[in-house]
């Protein structure tokens, strides 16, 4: 390795020799004293541009071009005037790579670029502390999800991404050519995770990319996302909400244990003890009472989701028992009132981040549900057949990783939470 320490750790080693490697962040010329600031993923350090170590020729190059890639060996020294009270006195200085052109995006935050330009040059954008921190937090979020579910006895499974039938029905699905057949990119692993539970795996979870050919361009929708899914055998909607509540709280706990990372994003996270559950019908009454135009039976718009957040006054809550007609065909109608189904959404900071339900496990009810939505049971034969040979009651949910990352990191646009977002117009890079 070219370095012994990340800069953050090197700064703690006062009096010791360290080796760091990173980018030239900026240069300060104070006449006799000259400083170069070196940056890596963990932070920055002031390095004295010492005569004899850094030649005048080398110095001239660095002044002219930020983002040179350098390797420096030196002693860490206390200096109360330096940022964080430390600086590096170099004994060896090497340029690993140079920069030939003017940077199209400034990694030092001095000149801000628009999102389109930043995404075009994502590798430069990512050198910014806030931007790479978003992806560090995203990694913590997905790992907390995985860790907690494994601890609860779940098994991670890997369903196909290329499929023959649309999982949810509907039109928002990408078609592709699969040799002599027509195939689709999965819009959800729904049917496959249910089949895994019917197969006896009982408690399964999935983390995979899914694709939605939604044409609208919004700040909360992408065409490719990472879906965190789970399915539980011998469970109903409230059992699934219990699991989602536990795992969601664990995800919040994991990021809240990194306040220094959240602070970089200007974010703070409170970890709730419990998550309130409110019925769809109660929410409709609440909206109407507050003068909102909405009738029972309609889904909430994104604007209404924000209003509901303000009325409920909690960062996270469940809305449950949605009308059957606005949920996916496999949602279990309520025993006492089939116009509602055993379904739920998890709302966080004014946005839906997860949807779930108890699923229909009786073949006659399932075929009826398909037909009533003008879907042909024959198109779902691989799926419906599984219900003829002993399908246990089951329930589950799907949670969008980019949505939760966006909300945790306080981002206005979901594109910021995707390394290379795919949207209506962006397919490259
Ligand atoms: P919405 O109504 O908010 O568009 P949805 O109800 O169509 O979402 P679901 O099918 O319930 O989405 O998917 C489960 C979760 O996956 C959502 O709660 C959300 O977190 C995420 N998700 C779904 N579609 C998208 C998308 N196009 N972009 C980003 N995240 C999405
Ligand atoms: Mg939903």
What does this structure look like?
By secondary structure, the chain is of the alpha+beta class. It folds into two domains: 7-97, Nucleic acid-binding proteins (OB fold (Dihydrolipoamide Acetyltransferase, E2P), Beta Barrel), CATH 2.40.50.140; 123-417, BirA Bifunctional Protein, domain 2, CATH 3.30.930.10. Helix content is 30%, strand content 26%. It has 13 helices and 16 strands. The chain has helices spanning 7-10, 56-64, 115-120, 122-125, 129-151, 190-201, 237-256, 259-264, 280-289, 302-312, 363-372, 381-384, 401-408; strands spanning 17-30, 33-40, 43-48, 69-78, 86-97, 155-156, 162-163, 175-178, 181-185, 203-211, 224-233, 276-279, 316-320, 343-348, 351-358, 394-400. The strands form three sheets. It has an eight-stranded mixed sheet. A hairpin with a 7-residue loop joins strand 4 and strand 5 (86-97). Helix 5 (129-151) crosses helix 7 and helix 5 crosses helix 13 (401-408). The longest helix is centred in the N-terminal third of the chain and has 23 residues, at 129-151. The two termini are 30 Å apart. The relative contact order is 0.11. Adenosine-5'-triphosphate binds next to strand 11, strand 15, strand 16 and helix 13.
Note the overall shape.
Answer: elongated
CATH superfamily membership of the largest domain: Bira Bifunctional Protein, Domain 2
| Structural class determined from secondary elements | alpha+beta
Point out poorly predicted stretches: none
Query: What's the mean pLDDT score?
Result: 94
Strand order of the largest sheet: 6-10-11-16-15-14-13-12
Helix and strand element order: HEEEHEEHHHEEEEHEEHHEHHEEEHHEH
What CATH architecture of the largest domain would you give? 2-Layer Sandwich
* Helical residue percent band: 25-40%
Oligomer: single chain
Mind telling me the C-alpha Rg?
26 Å
CATH class designation of the largest domain: Alpha Beta
Tell me the CATH topology of the largest domain. BirA Bifunctional Protein, domain 2
Gap between N and C termini: 30 Å
How many E strands? 16
């Amino acid at each position: 390795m070219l370095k012994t320490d990340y800069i953050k750790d090197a700064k703690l080693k006062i009096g010791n020799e360290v080796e760091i490697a990173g980018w030239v962040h900026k240069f300060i010329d104070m006449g006799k004293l000259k400083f170069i600031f070196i940056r890596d993923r963990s932070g920055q350090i002031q390095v004295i541009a010492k005569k004899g170590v850094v030649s005048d020729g080398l110095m001239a190059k660095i002044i002219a071009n930020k983002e040179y890639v350098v390797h420096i060996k030196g002693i860490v020294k206390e200096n109360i005037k330096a940022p964080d009270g430390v600086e590096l006195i170099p004994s060896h200085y090497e340029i690993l790579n140079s920069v030939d052109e003017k940077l199209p995006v400034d990694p030092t935050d001095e000149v801000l670029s628009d999102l389109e330009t930043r995404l075009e040059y994502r590798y430069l954008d990512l050198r910014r502390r806030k931007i790479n921190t978003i992806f560090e937090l995203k990694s913590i979020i997905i790992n907390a999800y995985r860790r907690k579910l494994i601890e609860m006895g779940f098994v991670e499974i890997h369903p196909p991404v290329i499929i023959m039938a649309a999982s949810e029905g509907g039109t928002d699905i990408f078609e592709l050519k699969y040799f002599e057949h027509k195939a689709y990119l999965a819009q959800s692993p729904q049917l496959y995770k249910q089949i895994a539970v019917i197969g006896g795996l009982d408690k399964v979870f999935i983390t995979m990319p899914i694709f939605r050919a939604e044409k609208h361009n919004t700040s909360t929708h992408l065409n490719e996302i990472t879906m965190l899914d789970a399915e539980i055998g011998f469970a109903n909607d409230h059992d699934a909400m219990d699991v989602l509540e536990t795992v969601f709280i664990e995800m919040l706990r994991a990021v809240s244990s990194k306040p220094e990372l959240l602070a970089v994003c200007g974010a703070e996270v409170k970890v709730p003890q419990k998550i309130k559950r409110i019925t769809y019908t109660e929410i409709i009454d609440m909206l109407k009472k507050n003068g909102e135009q909405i009738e029972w039976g309609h889904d909430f718009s994104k604007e209404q989701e924000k209003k509901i957040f303000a009325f409920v006054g909690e960062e996270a809550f469940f809305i449950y028992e949605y009308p059957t007609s606005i949920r996916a065909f496999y949602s279990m109608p309520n025993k006492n009132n089939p116009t509602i189904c055993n379904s739920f959404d998890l709302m966080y900071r004014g946005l839906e981040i997860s949807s779930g339900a108890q699923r229909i496990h009786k073949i006659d009810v399932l075929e009826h549900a398909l037909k009533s939505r003008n879907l042909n049971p024959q198109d779902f034969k691989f799926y419906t057949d599984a219900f003829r040979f002993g399908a246990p009651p089951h329930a589950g949910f799907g949670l969008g990783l980019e949505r939760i990352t966006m909300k945790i990191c306080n981002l206005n646009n979901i594109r910021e939470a995707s390394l290379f977002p795919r949207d209506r117009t962006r397919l490259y890079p």
